[in-house]
Amino acid sequence: MYEQGLPMPYRQTQPLRIETVDLEGPGKDEVLVEVRAAGLCHSDLSVIKGMRKRALPVVGGHEGAGIVREVGSGVHTLSPGDHVIMSVATGCGHCSTCLRGRPALCPNMSAARSKGQLPNGERRLSVNGQPVHHYSGISSFAQYAVCVPSSLIKIDPAIPLDVAALYGCAVVTGAGAVFNTAQIRPGANVAIFGLGGVGLNAVMAARIAGASRIIGVDILEEKFALARELGCTDTILATDPTLVEQVRELTNGGANHVFEISGAQSAIASAYDVTCKGGNIILVGVGSADARYEYPHTMLVSEEKSLLGSFMGGGIGERDIPTYLRFMKDGRMPVDKLKSGYMSFEDLNNALDLLHAGGVVRQVLLPHG
After folding, report:
1. How far apart are CA 91 and CA 109, in angstroms?
2. Residue-level pLDDT at 273
3. Residue 261 · residue 283 · CB < 8 Å
4. Most exposed: 57, 143, 305, 338, by fewest CB within 10 Å?
């Protein structure tokens, strides 16, 4: 990507260009991964739209899975042939934020991301001698990527890599918001605004956590069948003028935990209104970087509601991803059902249009066909 904010449709303006780039390394404490699958996420779309700025030019993709092909000196935790999930939900491991168990908030990692560097400060991509930036230390929209070991989670080779790729962002973000941020207890009432890849993972996690009622809300009714299959007890159109009344009636006064996945101001306002007294609103979706949101302050205080941010599931990737993989293995989290289809590099821009339209859940890029 050389430019953000190009107009739609993207199949015409082509914000993502398919090029051959030079990839160095792996250097010391780095790993070369052959990318076998990469998910297309709404956060990718928001960056394409220019809602959040990135260092340019950049090789996109922050959710993926592949096979280790080479390791640099100093790497002892991974070996060639290992299957790995590529994820940004990791930290440096030694700063005060990481030591508090919040690696996704690691300031060292976020500083490197903003500069388009790998977490170790290096840059291994270039075109004709000119530097090209890394995307969140991953850059999975490629056939090969150089990453640092902390961005890679070793997995069982029996796990299909096209499914494993979704764990790098969609699963850790949606399920983590339930298990780590909300810490749902059995019997709780839950509402989830936005039934895409992240929202449906939150649905599955809420069911595993023992929520008694799980209400899915979306602007597209065609998502409801899958949402009910994965755990929703009720589904309501976001455009229904009786949305708030319906949720309050279904939950006897409001949901205990309300997850807002889209970042849309109207959705956040509705999420606040359907939350019970003493309940919390977990904000997962992000809007424009400079967007400001309003809330009724007196009511927030007098009704003791809480607004909670949740970035990348608020957990520890090395701990959480193996747990979520076990949930899939025992049939409680069928992540494979979230795949909306496969694509090649040439399909990426058209896939962005499909993602904007909202009818797909998770499209998976197969870099090697």
Report:
1. 6
2. 97
3. no
4. 143
Give residue-wise pLDDT tens across range 116-171: 999 999 999 999 999 999 999 999 999 999 999 999 999 999 999 999 999 999 99
pTM: 0.96
- Distances in Å between the Cα of 325 and the Cα atoms of 90, 119, 156, 251, 362 are 17, 25, 10, 31, 17
Residues β-bridged to residue 201: none
Report the relative pairing of strands 64-71 and 83-86 from DSSP bridges. antiparallel
Q: List, in sequence order, every beta strand (DSSP E) within 21-138.
A: 22-23, 31-40, 58-59, 64-71, 83-86, 125-127, 130-134
How many residues comprise the chain? 369
Q: For the residues 51-64, what does the mean pLDDT come to?
A: 95
Q: How far is CA 136 from the centre of its chain?
A: 12
Burial class (CB in 10 A: 0-12, 13-18, 19+), 156: exposed
Cα separation, 216 vs 194, in Å, equals: 7
Read off the amino acid at residue 121.
Answer: G
Instruction: Give one DSSP letter per residue of 220-257, joined into a string.
Output: -GGGHHHHHHHT-SEEEETT-TTHHHHHHHHTTS-EEE
255-270 pLDDT tens trace: 999 999 998 889 999 9
What's the DSSP call for residue 15? S
Q: What is the mean pLDDT of residues 11-37?
A: 97
Query: What distances in angstroms separate CA 65 from CA 1, 75, 103, 143, one per listed residue?
Result: 21, 19, 20, 11
On whether the CB atoms of residues 258 and 184 are closer than 8 A, the answer is no
Helices and strands per DSSP (H, E), number in the chain: 13, 17
Residue 9 DSSP one-character state: P
What single-letter amino acid sits at 157? P
